[in-house]
């Protein structure tokens, strides 16, 4: 996989109560990341290993549909997201402040 494509796969970390709970609990640390809509599991794994210099154990991907919202008589829809839950190998830790 090309480095240019891998740099476009990861969009942002997900910072929610659920993501924080998953990151702190359990034997294996898990990180929640917002990824590109067309990203595959091998691309996400390679991108995390390249950017953060950690070893990835597994990747789970979730497609979250956008919510329907109303403002008076107008109906709109929020943007759909693709979330990747990345499990790191034992002893690995991910630090967002030290990205190369």
Can you put this structure into words, describing what you see?
The protein is α+β, with helices and mostly antiparallel strands and 100 residues long. Helix content is 27%, strand content 35%. It has helices at 3-9, 17-24, 41-52, and strands spanning 10-13, 30-35, 56-64, 68-71, 74-77, 81-88. It has a 4-stranded antiparallel sheet with strand order 1-2-6-3, with helices on both faces.
Short synopsis of the structure:
The chain is α+β, with helices and mostly antiparallel strands. Helix content is 27%, strand content 35%. The strands form 2 sheets. Strands 1-2-6-3 form a 4-stranded antiparallel β-sheet, sandwiched between helices. Strands 4-5 form a two-stranded antiparallel ribbon.
Number of domains: 1
- The CATH architecture category equals 2-Layer Sandwich
Element-by-element helix/strand order: HEHEHEEEE
Mean pLDDT: 90
Spatial gap, N to C terminus: 18 Å
Biggest sheet strand line-up: 1-2-6-3
Subunit structure: Part of the 50S ribosomal subunit. Contacts protein L29, and trigger factor when it is bound to the ribosome.
InterPro entries: Nucleotide-bd_a/b_plait_sf (IPR012677), Ribosomal_uL23-like (IPR013025), Ribosomal_uL23/eL15/eS24_sf (IPR012678)
Organism: Advenella kashmirensis (strain DSM 17095 / LMG 22695 / WT001)
GO molecular function, one term: structural constituent of ribosome
């Amino acid at each position: 996989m090309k480095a240019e494509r891998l740099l476009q796969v990861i969009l942002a970390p997900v910072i929610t109560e659920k993501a924080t709970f998953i990151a702190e609990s359990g034997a294996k640390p898990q990180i929640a990341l917002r990824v590109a809509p067309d990203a595959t599991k091998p691309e996400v794994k390679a991108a995390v290993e390249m950017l953060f210099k950690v070893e990835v154990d597994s990747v789970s991907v979730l497609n979250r549909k956008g919510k329907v919202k109303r403002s008076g008589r107008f109906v709109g829809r929020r943007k759909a997201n693709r979330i990747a839950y990345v499990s790191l190998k034992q002893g690995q830790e991910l630090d967002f402040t030290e990205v190369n």
